[in-house]
Amino acid sequence: MSPRQAVEAVTADIRDHHITVDGTGLFNATRHIDLLCHLTARIAADAEYQLAPNIADLPPAKDLGQNVSHLGQAIAHYAQALAPLITLTTTAQGTLQQKLDSLDQHSRLRVHLDGAGRALASASTALEVPRPPAASSPPVPAPLRAPAARRRT
């Protein structure tokens, strides 16, 4: 699978496994971090191999390095999201005051999850393959008309 396909596969997996404020969400967050760390290591290795001669079918090392930077940002956001997520999953929220107190934690969690999403979108964009400009084709000649048959009278 190409680096871009790998980024898209991990992004799709992350999108399918939501972060919720319970034990499942905490499991999913650590799972996302694990996937992103593996992906980052793989793309960093691809960048290293791209620096060697005669390696084909990889984006330029500069693009791979930029992608690793974006993935690192996504990992950092997920790591920072763990603190509010742990607080929310381990603190009782039965009373109105407890729910009000948790608003800041929800806000912090949302900020980091949104930041991770932006970083993943940037990672995918960094590996977009530029499409060559459409070659202008010569104009198609008009169809030839068959000579009209002469009628004899």
Radius of gyration: 27 Å
Strand tally: 0
How much is the average pLDDT?
83
Q: Point out poorly predicted stretches.
A: none
Largest sheet: none
- Give the overall silhouette: elongated
Describe this structure in words.
- This protein has helices at residues 3-16, 23-51, 61-90, 96-101, 103-126.
- The termini are far apart.
- It is mainly alpha-helical.
List the helices and strands and how they pair.
Elements: H1 3-16, H2 23-51, H3 61-90, H4 96-101, H5 103-126
Helix pairs in contact: 1-2, 2-3, 3-5
Task: Please give a quick description of this structure.
This protein is 67% helix and 0% strand. By secondary structure, the protein is an all-alpha fold.
Keywords:
0% strand; 153 residues; mainly alpha; single chain
